[in-house]
Amino acid sequence: MDLEWNTAYSKRYGSFFNEVIEIGAVKLDEGFNVLDTVSIIVKPQIGKKLRGRTKNLTHITNEDVSSGLIYPEAIAEFSEWLGNGENTFLTWGDGDIRVLVKNNEYFMNSCRLDFINSYADAQKYCQSFIKTEGSNQIGLSLACEQLGVDADRFSHHRALDDSLMTVECIKKVFDREKLNTYIHPCNEDFRRWLVFKPYYIKDMNNPIVELKSRKCICPICGKPARQIKKWRVVNQSFRSEYHCPRCEKNYRLTVRYKQLFDRIDERQTQTEIKPKPKVKEKKEQV
User: Is 149 helix (H, G, I), strand (E, B) or coil?
Assistant: First the structure.
């Protein structure tokens, strides 16, 4: 399944909201053969007009969505298309499933998606077969390129075509046993995970935060640098500065703690502080 959405300002929430404007999905059998497809245009209620970026990205127009179904009607039609059999939902990344939950909560006063039995993140599964630098998620187009899928056959950033591209990527690396390890039942833990909002820990007194034992190693001489500034909170991280007297270099140490649903993501970076260039004094004219 894939969604397209329009970012609109919600007076009720006092913030911007990703409002679903299209639902696309492909129904597959156990062998990943396509049984049926669906594409539903959703009429926005929060942002009456689509943002320019949304129109440019999706090529969906205001005229298109004006004749669409409002969200509760669209979900009812989608649920009827799904049928009553057991299913496993796959989306590229978990963004779509989270947006679906938020729209369900906004328009239907419920975070529950009872029509989903099991769920798997197709992006995580496919990326496990692709060598990438770091832990950043790769986009669907790049995955197609890496896996040998002809992405030019599809209209990008349209819900049904993106769903079909996802299917083609999975088929390139289909391994039943491995895919099963990525599938999770949609139980209470799953629902709590969906509504959980990751956040950065910024309280220095939090027991998770451990800064005293942090070390800054000078990359030139390989020796520990001396801390010259106390730790302080800057934006969403903790920062301190260090000096290496042997190499006459200053460094900034940045530590970030992010609370995820089931773990703490901890990252430390070290950068050299370059001296500011001296400004030439202007000569006074006589």
Answer: coil
Q: How far apart are CA 234 and CA 231, in angstroms?
A: 9
Q: Quick one: CA dihedral 159, 162, 167, 173, positive or negative?
A: negative
Assessment of whether the complete model's pTM goes beyond 0.70: yes
Rounded to the nearest 10 degrees, how much is the dihedral formed by the CA atoms of 97, 103, 108, 114? 0
CA–CA gap between residue 158 and residue 270 (Å, rounded)? 41
The helix/strand/coil state of 16 is strand
Query: For 151-185, how does the pLDDT look when each residue is reduced to its tens digit (9 = 90+)?
Result: 999 998 999 999 999 999 999 999 999 999 999 99
156 with 126: CB under 8 angstroms? no
- The span from the CA of 3 to the CA of 71, in Å, is 12
Give me the residues paired with residue 233 across strands: 238
Task: List residues bridging with 234 in a β-sheet.
Answer: 237
Q: How far apart are CA 256 and CA 241, in angstroms?
A: 15
Say what angle helices 95-108 and 71-82 make with each other, to 10 degrees.
120
DSSP state of 224: B
How far is residue 223 CA from its own chain's centroid? Answer: 38
